[in-house]
Amino acid sequence: MEIEATPLSPQQQAYNDGGGSDQRVGAGAKPLYRNPVVVVNFLLMAVGTVCGPLLFRAYFLHGGTRKWLTCLLQTAAWPLLLPPLCVSFFSRRRRQREESATEAAPLSLMSGTLLAATVAIGLVIGLIDFLYAYGLAYLPVSTTSILVSTQLAFTAVFVLVVVRHRFTTFSVNAVVLIVVGAAMLGLNGGGDRPAGVSRAQYYAGFAMTLGSAALYGLVLPLMELSQAQHAARAGAAVTYTLVLEIQMVIGITATAFSAVGMLVNREFHEIPDEARRFDLGEAGYYFMLVSSATAFQCLFVGTIGAIFYGSALLAGVVMMLKGRERFGGIIRCIA
After folding, report:
1. Are 316 and 174 in contact (CB under 8 A)?
2. Is the pLDDT of residue 1 over 70?
3. Quick check: 20 and 251 in contact, CB under 8 A?
4. How far apart are CA 234 and CA 232, in angstroms?
5. How many Å apart are CA 10 and CA 19, to the nearest integer?
6. Fewer CB within a 10 Å sphere, N or C end of the chain?
7. Three-state DSSP string of 225-253
8. Contact (CB, 8 A) for 253 and 128
């Protein structure tokens, strides 16, 4: 079967006027929390948000030093999207043959304009990945989580400016509570500079992590805007297959950006030596790389799925709620 699902957000309901027999949205549409595909996307975000930073921090603590490598790993698992996309393409081609013997199914659902916008977003994601990797090299996971929590505030501002999202009392309440919770954690976190990290490195990591949060807060509304503009075109329907194609192009572009950085800094040649010196052994080293890449791919797929079914603000709220340190820290502060 083709991997297409019914979008449920008000924005997507408006988009469906342009066509697309796959997308049936009506009064009987399921709420978000009852849609199994939405639940799967939220679970993917949970896995990536919790596991990704912990694995990266463990990499640096046990002897890893390659920042461009960790930047690349955040998007290098994009080939995991190929199997579902291939299944979707062959299903679409078979259905096209049944309906029309002359017209062939397109290899991709992306338009040229959407492809160009997605490539640009992918380059920004590559920069965000580098800033995040640099910050995590010098900051503990708890501090990184606090700084990344500010991304929700940036997302709220950019959603208002870029996509003209209307705020409700519920969305404002969610943003305020989560940002205040992060601030409470920050007040309790003093003297968390890791051993061996200079003050200059610590503040550089602090600034770069905050910068990555601000940029990611901008990227989420831009993703929503690109999907909206594509859907506004005559006959252009936004499906979950298209969402996966967007994520794959972003992954390819960001990975290429990081690969150039690794080539310039000659990091590819250093990987075997670093693996031999790694505290957990070579097997542990490569396992950590593969598992980190998989975790972050889960995060990105879940995020773009949350944007598809809801909005950029929904994706930001869910992402902030998934951090293990934030949950535990807020509970400790309240207690």
Report:
1. no
2. no
3. no
4. 6
5. 16
6. C
7. HHHHHHHHCCCCCCCHHHHHHHHHHHHHH
8. no
Distance separating alpha carbons of residues 26 and 4, to the nearest angstrom: 17
CA-CA distance, 164 to 161, in Å (whole number)? 6
| Helix, strand or coil, per DSSP, at residue 2 | coil
The mean pLDDT of 308-319, rounded to a whole number, is 72
Collapsing DSSP to helix, strand or coil, 25 comes out as coil
Tokens of 107: 């290899």
In the chain the beta strands, taken as DSSP E runs, fall at none
* Average pLDDT across the chain, whole number: 76
pTM above 0.90, yes or no: no
* Alpha carbon distances (Å) from 294 to 10, 81, 115, 211, 287: 31, 11, 24, 24, 11
With left for phi above 0 and alpha for psi between -120 and 50, is residue 63 left, alpha or beta? left
Over residues 302-324, mean pLDDT: 71
Structure tokens at 20: 């697309």
- Contact call for residues 7 and 25 (beta carbons, < 8 A): yes
Question: What's the distance, Cα to Cα, between the start and end of the chain in Å?
Answer: 49
Q: Can you state the angle between helices 281-309 and 36-61, rounded to 10 degrees?
A: 150
Query: What value, to the nearest 5°, has the Cα angle with vertex 160 and ends 159 and 162?
Result: 60
